[in-house]
Amino acid sequence: MKCATKRGAVPKTIAFAPDRKTFYFTDCRTCVVGVIRYARDSRDPGDLEILGRYSEAEGPDGACIDAEGAI
Q: Domain spans of the chain?
């Protein structure tokens, strides 16, 4: 998989939505929860949208996606 961001990421959680075009992840390096919408036809990971930030002490340890695609 190509790096999702220009400076690199250290993913701790990766979860794909039911549409198989959207994936969520947490980056241990920058302490963010993000989403990327993947264009399967161009294989372009798209831009990172930051959904939230966390401190190192409270970082997520897993993810779950419901049937509607919400994390």
A: 1-71
CA distances in angstroms from 8 to 30, 63, 64, listed in the order given: 10, 21, 24
Task: Write the pLDDT tens digit of every residue in 29-51.
Answer: 888 888 888 877 777 778 889 99
Count of Cβ atoms closer than 10 Å to residue 42 Cβ: 8
Predicted structure pTM score: 0.65
Predicted confidence (pLDDT) per residue in 52-68, tens digit: 898 877 777 778 888 88
State both tokens at 51.
């959904």
Strand partners, 26: 13, 33
